[in-house]
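Quick entry between incubations.
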Amino acid sequence: MSDCIFCKIRDGAIPSEKVYEDDKMFIIKDIDPKAKRHYLMIPKRHFKLLSEMTPADAEDLSYSLKKLPELSSLLGLEGGYRLVINQGDDAGQTVFHLHVHVMCGQPLDFPDLRKGK
Ligand code: AMP
Ligand code: ZN
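Done. Structure below.
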């Protein structure tokens, strides 16, 4: 089996709090939430980076993004939400199976990341 933690979650080999699943993607609660509600939207097809995305991968990613409005009440997106994709070292990517962070449920700060330079 793949070494990838999100592939293992997808396949049920590692438990998770799945809140939505269909044939192309699934959504779990982040184990270490950074907002009142913090989900990970994960295409089922494994790819590491946006830069490695095939046309089929891109289709699954756009499918996932377009699905969000439909999941608004399930996820509690009514007040607004923020989507984040961390790619590579500078962004602090830790899991190399592309995923979209979905944060919501509160007013979301937009920090000035230049501070501390
Ligand atoms: P990133 O830094 O963008 O690669 O994000 C990886 C995210 O996966 C982090 O926010 C982690 O808290 C989250 N994470 C890691 N392992 C698990 C897990 N087993 N279940 C749920 N979320 C996880
Ligand atoms: Zn994977």
